[in-house]
């Protein structure tokens, strides 16, 4: 297996590099550190699965990259580099030029992307012409090609439809097509298949995986479900209470989970060998971001916790392409 340094050299410069990102929300009760010192890298054509329970900071990380953090939220520190350009220093007008062109987002609910009062073609043509000087006919051809690319049958007919005339799976495909219209460098997919049935979910995952490979677009797939990303992501990053606790190749993280939280997530996934047995669960609940425990945020739920865990561990390399934030990486429960 190649080392991280060799892999990075082979892949070239990262499309996205997040350094010590902190996104905080100021409330009357105090400051909630939703994202607290996150470091991530993403390369051309790569799919990164960002995994964790609700409230772990996954979606806030995605919204931070998109520049969609509204008050009382704020980016309190760190850098977000897209092809070397620091997005945290952009004005709102500059962010609008980047969104939809260089970075696109696929939301869990397609209604957040689609306007119910406008035909699909109107929305897609506007998405093209907002970032590129071209005729309506040219933009419409691009829209039709994008619908065809995501597997929508009779794309000419669908262009003339309103969103309410389409099924949930078809609306999500349209939202994905809009995200692909301007050939972005990066797509952030925020649990885009959660509300769909399993067969449609599998089709969309396969189509997106293929599109990333063919176009070189990098993608962050945000999810709470390890089973969804296990078969599609190149690498996994596991988040807990605003921090990355484990990151590595999908194979390493799935086969050799080193952080107790990652093992807990793995234990809660139904598998063939666990059929008929009660699934394991992680005791306790995610701590409030306003009142995090001293040291490791997971220590109050962890069977391995000891005195060392009252200090915050660093995210340190454990195997050649796997890093873990834990004082007892790879140890089994005592």
Write structural notes for this entry:
This protein has 334 residues and is an alpha/beta fold. The protein has two domains: 4-102 and 185-324, Rossmann fold (3-Layer(aba) Sandwich); 108-183, no CATH class. 31% of the residues lie in helices and 23% in strands. The chain has an eight-stranded mixed sheet with strand order 6-7-8-3-9-10-12-11, with helices on both faces. The protein has a four-stranded antiparallel sheet with strand order 2-1-4-5. Helix 8 (198-215) links the parallel strand 7 (186-190) and strand 8 (218-223). Helix 4 crosses helix 5. The longest helix is centred in the middle third of the chain and has 18 residues, at 198-215. The protein is globular.
């Amino acid at each position: 297996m190649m080392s991280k340094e060799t892999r990075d050299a082979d892949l070239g410069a990262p499309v996205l590099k997040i350094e010590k990102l902190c996104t905080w929300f100021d409330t009357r009760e105090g400051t909630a550190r939703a994202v607290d010192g996150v470091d991530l890298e993403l390369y051309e054509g790569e799919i990164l699965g960002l995994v964790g329970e609700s409230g772990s900071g996954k979606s806030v990380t995605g919204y931070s990259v998109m520049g969609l953090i509204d008050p009382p939220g704020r980016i309190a520190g760190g850098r977000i580099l897209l092809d070397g350009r620091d997005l945290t220093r952009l004005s709102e007008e500059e962010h609008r030029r980047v969104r939809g062109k260089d970075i696109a987002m696929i939301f869990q609910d397609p209604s957040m992307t689609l306007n119910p009062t406008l035909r699909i073609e109107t929305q897609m043509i506007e998405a093209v012409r907002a970032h590129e000087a071209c005729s309506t006919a040219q933009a419409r051809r691009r829209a039709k090609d994008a619908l065809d690319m995501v597997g929508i049958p009779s794309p000419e007919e669908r262009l003339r439809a309103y969103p309410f005339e389409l099924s949930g799976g078809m609306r999500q495909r349209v939202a994905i097509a809009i995200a692909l219209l301007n050939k972005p460098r990066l797509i952030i997919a925020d649990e885009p298949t959660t509300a769909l049935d399993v067969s449609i979910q599998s089709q969309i995952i396969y189509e997106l995986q293929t599109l990333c490979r063919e176009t070189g677009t990098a993608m962050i797939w945000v999810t709470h479900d390890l089973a969804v990303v296990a078969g599609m992501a190149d690498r996994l990053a596991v988040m807990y209470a605003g921090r990355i606790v484990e990151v590595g190749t999908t194979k390493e993280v799935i086969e050799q989970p080193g952080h107790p939280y990652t093992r807990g997530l793995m234990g809660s996934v139904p598998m063939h060998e666990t059929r008929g047995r009660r699934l394991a669960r992680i005791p306790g609940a995610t701590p409030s971001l306003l009142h995090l425990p001293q040291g490791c945020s997971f220590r109050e739920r962890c069977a391995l916790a000891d005195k060392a865990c009252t200090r915050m561990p660093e995210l340190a390399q454990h195997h050649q392409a796997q890093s873990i934030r834990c004082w007892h990486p790879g140890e089994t429960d005592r």
